[in-house]
Amino acid sequence: MALNLYKKLIDDLVEVQQQGDVTAARVRKKQLWPTSAASDLVKQNRIIKSLNDEDRETVAEMLQSARDDGIHDVLVYLQEEMDLNDLRITINGTELPVNPFWDLFHDWQYRCSGESWPDEKS
Fold this sequence. Notes:
Order of helices and strands: HHHHEEH
Radius of gyration: 19 Å
Number of domains: 1
């Protein structure tokens, strides 16, 4: 049960990653923010409008990468807290195992790349 909850947590985070960054999607589609928005968004609109298709895709990829890096960094931080300060993650009263395979961020990276769980490989 605890291992399945761990796998679900990681797989849910993979799903978050695969849903993609909302801002990256807006840039790809050349969707602008409302003109009544904050001045930072007005500046972003100006930049988005100035980009050609190839540059817009590059910026979208950069935004997605930054988002992925953020998820990774949070998992690294949580892993360090687990290793150094006995942080534990509990879901519905069940404590998740610590490092049942590799560690939080490596498990997430492997699953993002489409790898099977080690205990499910044939």
